[in-house]
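[audit] Reproducing an earlier prediction to check determinism. Same input, same settings, fresh worker. If the tokens differ from the archived copy the diff job will pick it up downstream; this log only records the rerun itself.
[audit] input (328 residues):
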Amino acid sequence: MPYPFVGNMDLMGKLRSLELSTLVRPTLLLLLFYGARDAHCSLVYGNMTDGRSLLDFKEAITDDPGGALHDWNDGIHHCMWSGVSCSVRHPRRVTTLELGSLNLTGQITPSLGNLTFLRELDLTNNHFSGQLPSLNRLIKLESLAISENILQVNIQDATIALANCSELWLLDISSNMLVGSIPRNIGSFSNLRVLDLSQNNLTGIIPPTFSNITRLQVISLADNQLEGNIPGELGQLPYMMLVLLKGNKLSGRVPPELCNISSLRELDLGMNTLSGTLPADIGYTLPFLVWLSLGTNNLEGHIPDSLGNASALRHLDLSSNYFTGQIR
């Protein structure tokens, strides 16, 4: 089926425009069917109940303009609170915390690290600031979405805070205030399918150790201050669909290895300082390519004739380069 991208669509919008069934996602328990119980019946795990951990998190919220957490109180079982889902097999254990787009202001407290059955954490599009606390006890965590906040975090500290979260398949820390260089140990998150670190202040190079994340399907490092070459090792990722690296200071050639990922749907390398020519057979080696953006670079040479055979291509931007010739 076609993949209708829109130019200003955000990354998650693009994921939704793909067949999400192609993104290998574990089945998550999202529904809970049991009545409210007295909070005093909660079992203790470690030093705290999950409910107490959530209340500690709530106490760090300095502004909740919509009253989203109004029902977070001892009069209601914590598994019935807004945004909270619990396990069916392990009652009282929180598996999902969905608090996106609620205009919450505050900090992310270390108490969330006590929710050791947590699989999904969504704090997207709020006003959380400060650091990312250690979440190393969340060994079941599969999806962490904390984009569109104002977290002031060094990317190396963030990877340390998540070092034991080996089940993560989605990590989205885009649109925050991340700084520092992407550490080489990023490759240790071997189960990642989706990684979005875009719209931050990251510097340094793109580490070749990304090639260790062999299941990776989406990578967005767009709109940072990354420099150096695009590592050819990215071409070793056989399931890659989206490679979004625009708006950095990347230089050197477009790696021919990158143009050999037959599963690739979108390649956006615009607004860098890339040079050299494009592989002549790019239109043949990327048969499912829908979006190719290479504008505002220093690329040169003939426009590859093979692009005329890229039948799935819907968006092509080669502007502000030094290309010659025409698409036939």
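[audit] rerun output stored. Observation attached for the diff report: DSSP finds four helices and 22 strands in the chain.
[audit] end
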